[in-house]
Amino acid sequence: MITLFVIVAALLSLNLYALSCSPRTSRIPFAVAVVALVVAILGPFAGVLRLPLPSNFLLLWLLFIPIAAICAVAATLLGILALASQTFTPRSPQPNPGTASIVLAPAAPKPVSSGPVSGRTRFSQHRRWILTMLPAVVILVAAGLNLATPLRLVHESVQGIETSTGTVVGDTRYGATFTSAVSGDVTGAFTASVNYRPAYPRPALTHLATGGSWSLAVYRQGQYQGTVFGPVGTGTLHWNVDVTEGAISVDLQVTGGTGTYLGVHGHAHFSGSLLHTTYPPTVGGNLDLDLNR
Questions:
Q1: pTM more than 0.70
Q2: Which of 32, 255, 276, 287 shows the greatest Cβ crowding within 10 Å of its Cβ?
Q3: Contact assessment for residue 90 and residue 33, using Cβ atoms and an 8 Å cutoff
Q4: What local confidence, expressed as pLDDT, does residue 50 receive?
Q5: DSSP classification of residue 115
Q6: What three-state secondary structure class fits 27?
Q7: What gap in Å lies between CA 131 and CA 21, rounded to an integer?
Q8: Helix or strand holding residue 209 (H, E)
Q9: What domains does the chain contain, in order, with CATH numbers?
Q10: Helix (H, G, I), strand (E, B) or coil at 67
């Protein structure tokens, strides 16, 4: 992710500087590149700025980001080619027909002015560099702060039900699914589909998790923030002697996210219990999340 920010920041600075220095006829490609880069930046920075954007809007930006980046690179190359063609195109003299060619002595060079004019020129050049580099510096600083700060959702309460018992193949049960509501500092919907063996519960038996997937849709103050997801890692489900309550402990890997959590990684852990005293069975416990970018 940081490499992407560096590339975008460098391209943005290059195009802004080219806009300030190049002739008007060569500015159009650079202007198009700047607009495309701004479009490419808005998607990732929705997560950096924690903007509560709708999920369909965020998914639309995820589609436009690579297209905008490609357009920005292409427009930058076209602008450089146009600028180079104007710079290196020789201008042949146009003699007046019917007149003799006259060789003129080279004009004496104009003296280089010094003093306040030179100082103002240097100040103008420095100001141009500062203005063109400022967006890149802001982008890199914001990205660095966001990457260095962990996004921790600690000890959230989870309550839900078992929505599917899954499918048994041999001694393994695939796709036992649980849907739960999360409450605490954040609210959301936690869903997990777990594979485990042995397939059937028995008194004092311990099931071992063998895979699966999970996701957590996060809301803050009623606004959708994004979704965190990943595979199910190692874990156990240990039944009591009458097979009415099982103690759950499972590790969850965080491999990505959407919206505010675009590009996150880390790990999570769920600990709780599964009750077979009601139908459908209920699940409850705590979800600990440790997220980083």
A1: no
A2: 287
A3: no
A4: 47
A5: S
A6: helix
A7: 12
A8: strand 206-220
A9: 2-87+128-148 (no CATH), 151-292 (2.40.350)
A10: helix
